[in-house]
Design a protein that fits this description.
The chain is an alpha+beta fold. It has helices at 2-18, 182-209, and strands spanning 22-24, 28-31, 48-56, 69-70, 74-77, 82-89, 95-99, 112-116, 120-127, 133-138, 150-155. Helices cover 21% and strands 28% of the residues. The strands form 2 sheets. Strands 1-2-8-7-10-11-5 form a 7-stranded mixed beta sheet, with no helix packed on it. The protein is elongated, with a radius of gyration of 28 Å. Copper (II) ion is lined by residues 68, 95-96, 139, 141, 144, 149.
């Protein structure tokens, strides 16, 4: 009898771990999708939400100085909702859709990760916990989030705005633009001075030691 219980406990543990899956093909990959396992604090799924999310350069055109974006910068869902995502990449380059801060016992590293190596689409589901929280959504490729591919998923109204979400919140550190040209002008004058001295002294030395040089 005891052995049976142990076996059941073992099988249960394995079944709880085995959903941490990864699908991959030549077009892209999905990591940690979860369409069945309820977060600990949810007794049932509150609602099912279908979200179609686009990624592409054209969605950044309305944001000054940005280059990449999702078609929306915020999504609102209820606690314990199940979200069916269709992720569409409209560009010919690689983009990701990553949600961070999810419970680690359901989503390894607290992360749902969708990635497309070029134009195409992927599907994945997740179930969010029963908690008011704002989750970071971004593309983690170098400079993509900094250049605009950053958004937030608010569950139950969220717990505030994250920084530097285009058109929603200001960055923590503002970008530095060199608007004062004085430094550049001074640099130019200094460079001219150095060039004059170098060539001038070279000429003087040559004419002194090799008289014929002149
Ligand atoms: Cu990207």
């Amino acid at each position: 009898m005891k052995k049976n219980r142990l076996l059941i406990a073992l099988l249960f543990t394995i079944s709880q771990v085995s959903f941490a899956t990864m699908q991959m093909d030549e077009k892209g990959m999905v990591m940690n999708a979860n369409s069945n396992n309820l977060p600990k604090d949810c007794s049932q799924i509150s609602e099912t939400v279908n979200l179609t999310i686009h990624a592409g350069q054209k969605y950044a055109e309305k944001f000054n100085g940005k280059m990449f974006a999702f078609d929306r910068q915020q999504w609102d869902v209820k606690p314990c909702s199940k979200i069916n995502i269709i992720f569409i990449n409209d560009d010919q380059i690689r983009h990701q859709f990553m949600i961070h801060g999810l419970p680690g016992y359901l989503y390894p590293d607290g992360m749902l990760h969708l990635e497309l190596y070029g134009e195409g689409q992927l599907r994945a589901s997740l179930i969010v916990p029963n908690q008011k929280k704002t989750y970071l959504v971004h593309c983690e490729l170098a400079q993509h989030a900094e250049k605009g591919m950053k958004a937030q998923l608010k569950v139950g109204g969220g717990d505030g705005d994250l920084p530097s979400i285009p058109a929603i919140s200001a960055p923590i550190n503002s970008d530095h633009y060199l608007l004062d040209w004085t430094e550049l002008k001074l640099g130019g004058v200094f460079a001219l001075f150095v060039i004059t001295i170098t060539f001038g002294s070279g000429h003087w030395l040559l004419s002194r030691y090799f008289g014929k040089y002149k």
